[in-house]
Amino acid sequence: MAALSRTVSSLSRRPQLQGLQSARQMSSLFGHVEPAPKDPILGVTEAFLADQSPDKVNVGGVRLPLRTPSSIPRSLAAGAYRDDNGKPLVLQCVREAERRIAGNLNMEYLPMGGSITMIEQSLKLAYGEDSEFIKDKKIAAVQALSGTGACRLFADFQKRFLPDSQIYIPTPTWSNHHNIWRDANVPQNKFTYYHPESRGLDFSGLMSDIKNAPDGSFFMLHACAHNPTGVDPTEEQWREISHLFKAKKHFPFFDMAYQGFASGDPERDAKAIRIFLEDGHQIGCAQSYAKNMGLYGQRVGCLSILCDDEKQAVAVKSQLQQLARPMYSNPPVHGALVVSIILNDPELKNLWLQEVKGMADRIIGMRTALKENLEKLGSPLSWEHITNQIGMFCYSGMTPEQVDRLTNEFHIYMTRNGRISMAGVTSGNVGYLANAIHEVTKPK
Ligand code: KET
């Protein structure tokens, strides 16, 4: 009897033991996994949130967790636009689009390639309202998971169909570009872009790197408002770049994450792309509505590739869809509906254009205010670049050590490359920021 009960209890324990054993096996399976290094941009927000000081200022990181903005004292959480009170902004045009969606539209799957209206309207923004390429259906385009997703889908497409190709990426660039092409297994090369001494464009270095790259190379170009430097080529320089690309048969891939944020006018900010189109290039383009519509968390964007003819465009689009299907099947619907409604309605589109200009103008105003404050404090250094650079960021020229002092002594959070997100600077904190920058940069 006792033997029997032992057997029964050991039998009943066995599944538990087996469970434990397999749990142990599981843990040893992943025992070699080390924590990933912190992201140079998103990691800053984590540190910011852990800071208890009421003076803390974030002009570096991006996202805030879901809590009410008012619970974060003097937060300028950046890389994302804030109004002059330091609060996240939902555009009026977006609120109106959401009002129209609420209760009126279904939430079924979008097609694999995403919302047709959103794509049509996105192409008009990038390629021009009356673009012949749109009319001739020469562009393969799919909705993408914002700008990041569009870049990644392109990188995967590049690897699948041109497996021996490489990508040239500017120095410096948005840090995630390196991760994107790395994870798509596309080898990377650098090209010269920024001139640290002048804090402007190294045009001759850029041109010679384009010239020295093997014919037919892939180049990743920031369409406008270069991140992190805020330095864009002039129109004339873009024309020269385009001519050289033509001679070298290079392929330009434009990452356009800030259309409207450079000049305040999305049409003007598409100038570089239009120049390349006039010159008869085949191009690729990643568009994002994160910044210019404030749809950061909605993850809505577009990837397009200009092809030789409609037949090629159909084939390329079908392959892009096939890349998307096993990854995320089809893109999210809400942001796409918002964008479609806004861009499809002339009145709402006008409102959007005014609101984009409003955001860009506020940033331009803050550049002037920051520079003037530094001058008033008697800084002997030149801060001309703050107003010369454009877009969301100011590449301040501060060293990582100076940035560390800003964080440790003044509770100001920004990326260690000295990038200040001007979108997080407000009338209320610009004086505090200028004073702190002056303290850490003044010659001893
Ligand atoms: N391209 C560039 C050049 C860029 O700066 C960003 C975002 C993106 C693409 C992607 O944005 P998306 O949200 O996927 O549409 N940059 C800011 C946010 C981030 O790092 O994710 C930033 O530099 O702060």
Automatic annotation (TrEMBL):
One GO CC annotation: mitochondrion
Name the catalysed reactions: L-aspartate + 2-oxoglutarate = oxaloacetate + L-glutamate
Query: One Pfam family for this entry, by name?
Result: Aminotran_1_2
What the entry lists under PROSITE patterns is as follows:
AA_TRANSFER_CLASS_1
The UniProt entry, under SUPFAM superfamilies, shows:
PLP-dependent transferases
UniProt keyword Ribonucleoprotein present: no
CDD domains linked: AAT_like
Could you say which EC number(s) this protein's record lists? 2.6.1.1
Coiled coil spans = none
- Which cofactor is recorded for it? pyridoxal 5'-phosphate
GO biological processes: amino acid metabolic process
Key words, A-Z: Aminotransferase, Pyridoxal phosphate, Transferase
> Which of the seven top EC classes does this enzyme belong to?
transferase
Q: What residue stretches are annotated with the Aminotransferase class I/classII large domain?
A: 76-437
Q: Which GO terms describe its molecular function?
A: L-aspartate:2-oxoglutarate aminotransferase activity; pyridoxal phosphate binding
What family does this belong to? Answer: Belongs to the class-I pyridoxal-phosphate-dependent aminotransferase family.
Assembly with partners or alone = Homodimer.
Leftover remarks = In eukaryotes there are cytoplasmic, mitochondrial and chloroplastic isozymes.
* This protein's name: Aspartate aminotransferase
**Organism, as annotated:** Eleusine coracana subsp. coracana
